[in-house]
Predict the 3D structure of the following.
Amino acid sequence: MNRIVSGLFRVSIVLVMAFITLPLIVVMAASLSPSSQVTLVPWEWTVRWYGDLVARRWIDPFILSAQIAVLVSLISGVLGLLAAYVVAFEKCPGHAAIMSFLLSPLAVPQIVKGVAIVLFLSSAGLYRWVGTPGLVAAHIILTLPFAVRMIATAMFNFDRNLDRAGQSLGATKAQRIRHLLIPIIKPGVFSGMTFAFIISFNNIPLSVFLVRPGQTTLPITVINYLEYSLDPVLAAVNVASLLFVLAVIFVFEKIGGFSAQIHGGSK
Amino acid sequence: MGHALGTRSRPGRSVVTMSSITLATNRGRPFRTSNVLRQYVPLLPPSILLLVFFAIPMGMMVGLSFHPEGASTATLANYERFFTDDFTLAGLGRTVLMSGLVAICVTVMAYPVAYFLARSRSRWRAVVFALAIAPELAGVVLRTYGWLIILEDQGFINSGLMWLGLISEPLPLAKNMFGVVVGLTHVILPFGILSLLTSLQGVDPSLEKSAQILGASRISVLRHIVVPLTVPGIVSSMLLAFTMSASAYATPAILGGADFKVLATMVYEQVLFYIDWSFAAVMANVLLVMMLIIAAIGSRLEMRLHKKLHF
């Protein structure tokens, strides 16, 4: 009996893992398959769909998405740093209330935030902001809570005694910030910025309200295209943008070194 | 007032006003600014941004929902319209049904994986963990597109079954509720796994060991010890999955097709195609209130379950 149960348990895990990986494998296979029909084992394969990516139709949205994601990531990092600094280090009244205000956008579904922002821009006569400025602002509202939380966590973990030790050894405030605070909170800041980048780059529910012709992000371009065609070039677009995201994570990790923080160890 | 606060934060007094644990160095917080009001200055840029692009728009949207086109005074007419119109009520019903199904699927599928991750010491643990979390890096579009290739009429499953001669007509797998539930389950599963993992890690493995030593079978250990102790985790994973799917936009839009409309996709159409902003605001508010109610129920329920389990 016990053997049957553990057998079933193993089978269920394998099945769930297959469920999780199946669509990813299918997209990768589709991006290499010569016909638009995807077969389990593609007997022939081609990279011509990747060649088709070098068209303005895909390059322009990609550049826009990347630009927005970089801006969103940088601004979330700076604003998150400012907010987290006050919440974590300053002994000021009401810092729980400040934190819940900063995290409040998390309680609202993205689609609702999107409607609210587009209605606001239209009624306030700021309709020309629809497009890049609106996209950046809306994405920051979405990513800022994550950045604040990650950076504040890093700051809460900062051992005050280190600072006291530095001080008693005669380090100036600037020296303590440069040699103690920055190295310790850097992984938190970079993980917040990476998170912001990924969320912004892949975002749909907010972007869908704020794109305009000629200023359409990559995921929205793909969705619009999907409505009338399952063209394998879409598979290539998706795989390429996944590779781009992985490369960005790799670069951020090299600079920020946050994987040590995630695994709970130290480098 | 400002003066009083100013003296309170002067370093010399910090031993009294902060905590007794503070060391005798009299310097409580590192890099502290002396003036209380100046301490808040760094908060200005993020707060202004949140105010302008979140708080004010949200307030405006709520206000707009009470002011239908042409109405000069606040009225509930739009809400009345929402709750009497068959079209919107059907959308609300589909949203609830879809989210409920996803909540059940996610929790049922996530539980064994989370249990494995919480207990296993095998080298496969890291592999399973990576595979469970990695899809989050791929955007929703990639994953939904993958499901579309698998499920649509000329897709992977239908063409395979037709080739085998098992079916003559393609099964309706995409562009309906089934497709959306599959897609959303896939998107939300990693969150379900992480949430149940936290809960399962809180259960002492020696409880299971002792039950086994006393002769309990694996099934009765699961049924009488592990599952009852993780009820709070199960509830919170279901609520998380429910709220995530009720507010999801992209998956229902792609996998649902023209006939399967949920609140999130209806809101979008109301804004961009019907251009009835006031009614769009009503739909968005209904969705928001639904989320807030579920979150409130969730935290109440979790607290009660926790008390029950920990006496």
Remarks:
- Chain B touches chain A through 91 residues (CB under 8 Å).
- The two ends of chain B are 45 Å apart (CA to CA).
- Confidence is low (pLDDT under 50) at residues 1-28 of chain B.
